[in-house]
UniProtKB/TrEMBL annotation:
Name by which UniProt lists this protein: AsnC family transcriptional regulator
Organism (species): Litoreibacter ponti
Domain HTH asnC-type: 5-66
Pfam families per the UniProt record, alphabetical: AsnC_trans_reg (PF01037), HTH_24 (PF13412)
tRNA processing recorded as keyword: no
GO cellular component: cytosol
UniProt record, GO biological process: regulation of DNA-templated transcription; response to amino acid
Key words, A-Z: DNA-binding, Transcription, Transcription regulation
Cited Gene3D superfamilies: 3.30.70.920, Winged helix-like DNA-binding domain superfamily/Winged helix DNA-binding domain (1.10.10.10)
Matches recorded under InterPro entries: ArsR-like_HTH (IPR011991), AsnC-type_HTH_dom (IPR000485), Dimeric_a/b-barrel (IPR011008), Tscrpt_reg_AsnC-like (IPR019888), Tscrpt_reg_AsnC/Lrp_C (IPR019887), Tscrpt_reg_HTH_AsnC-type_CS (IPR019885), WH-like_DNA-bd_sf (IPR036388), WH_DNA-bd_sf (IPR036390)
Amino acid sequence: MNVRLDDTDRKILAALQEDASQSLDEIAKKTGSSKTPVWNRIKKLRAAGVIKYDTSVLDPEKLGLEACFFVLIRTSEHEADWQDRFLRTLQARPEVMEAHRLAGDIDYILKVRVHNARAYDAFYQALISEVRIFNVTALLSMEEIKSTTALPL
C-alpha cells in the first residue's frame, strides 16, 4: 500500500534519514514549518508505517567487524519445512545483516559482517550444520564504496 506524501512529508523524512536524533526545531527549520505540525506529521507517518522504527547506525570497522561477505546460496530444497528452518536459522544469526530470496540461478544472497575470515568460517560451519544447502559461494568485499540506509524520496 503506497502512502501519499507531499513535499513537506518528504523533507521531514529526508531530515530524519539524515539524523533522527535532531530536534523538532531543527527539522521544522529545514522543512520551513513549525514544531507542532512537524510533530503531527511524524506521528501520522509512524501510524501509517512509513517510519518503521528509529535506530542508530554503527560503524562496523570501529567495532572490529572488518570483513563483509556476500554469501550466494543455491539449494535443491524448496519445501516449506526447509524454508522455515532456513529463515529461523538466518534470524538467529546476528552476523547476517541482510538476506534476500532471488530470482535466477542463485536462490539467496546474504550480507554477513564478521571480524575476519576465521569468524566467517565459524559462521559457515554453523549454517551448514543447521540447514542443508546445495552450494555456497562466499565473496569478500574488498572495499565498501557506498552504504546508506536512506531511501530515495
